[in-house]
Amino acid sequence: MLFRESVLIALSMLRQNKLRSFLTMLGVIIGVMSVTIIVMVSNGFTFFMTNEFKKLGSDTIVVAFDPGRRGGGETLGGVEGLTMDDVAFLQENVSSMDIASPIVQVPSKIRHAEEEIDNARIYATDSNFQELNKLKVIEGRFFTKDDLDSRANVCIIGEEIRDRCFPDKRAIGKYLTFNGITLEVIGVLERIDMMGETNAKDALVPITTAQDKWLGGDKLMMITLRPKPGFTVDETMEGVWQALMRRSGNRPIYRVDSRESIIKVFGAVFGVAGVVLSAIAALSLLVGGIGIMNIMLVSVTERTKEIGLRKSVGAKRASILTQFLVEAATLSLVGGLIGMAFAWVLGLAVTFGTAAIKWPSADGLPTPFPATAAFGAAVFSAFIGMVFGLYPAISASRMHPIEALRHE
């Protein structure tokens, strides 16, 4: 009952001195609002990054040749890079591996009539590339095994290449020139924008065609693959690494990574940044706590006669102490709740504002309200109020009733 009465008295004091109470709570309001907004933005960027990588398949594993990882004096053992044989080797020796796709970037310009595109990205790959990267063909079709086996002169292009070379947007069955080789357009890829990059300027050609007709050899830039259903990315990465170590004679000349691990890295970075920035923002809670202590000292002085009267009719020191501690905590907690409300409104403004300008993606930056973090900040603000209200509460509880009643 004492606690309930103390809370009611505290709320009554807030209503009686609205402006003073608001100014006292301002530091707590700003602190809780700042912490909550920082967590919201940090979670928003983490959510954004996760969704961006999911567009291309978060379970995709990437294998690259990285001779810089070997130890001093260690040779390459005759290995000069990834080849098509490595794709077959992994397929045969990694039981948890599902499908794989070789990739090599082709240096070339794209020409059609008077139009020339010199900043396009041209990749030579196979028919698994579409599934591994979750690509959608909006016109025509993707490569088939027959295209690869016959080294067909075909290509698949992005929307921007189509629009620049074929203003009527009818590209299927027409021809583009790559490095002096004429290829027929058999498909157009749906545009995917990710972290400021886009596949609208990408062109894909069969890897057998590129290697046979203008690259020569069978060197690869990288191999992408994914686990079979029932196997995790980490299990498959370990299987791939062990197989490559056997193939290279235990020379660490390869790099095995995954989009999932990249997501985890970004999540960790945003998480640490959010914690550090939240800790800095939480310093304003200390400023708010000092303000609460100051106003509680003033309140003790103003209510000296009340304290004396209560003690003269039998109120114990613990009761007086509890009342002023609850008042300080209530003052700080209300400030925290107001800060949470402001943060929620600002979070909605960020979500709708970024969606309106389509940054950093077409859906903007979602900033879901972090209920757990906000609750923690509010509880911490109440704790700050109790800590800084402790001295004024102890001062009030130690007052002698006779001296308190004489106070003017």
Overview of this protein structure:
With 408 residues, this protein is α+β, with helices and mostly antiparallel strands. It is 57% helix and 17% strand. It contains 13 helices and 16 strands. α1 packs across α11 and α9 runs parallel beside α12 (371-397). It is elongated, with a radius of gyration of 33 Å.
**Proportion of residues in β-strands:** 15-25%
Radius of gyration based on Cα positions = 33 Å
State the share of residues found in helices, binned by percent: 55-70%
In total, how many domains does the architecture comprise? Answer: 2
Give the overall pLDDT as a whole number. Answer: 82
Order of helices and strands: HHEEHEEEEHEHEHEEEEEHEEHEHHHHH
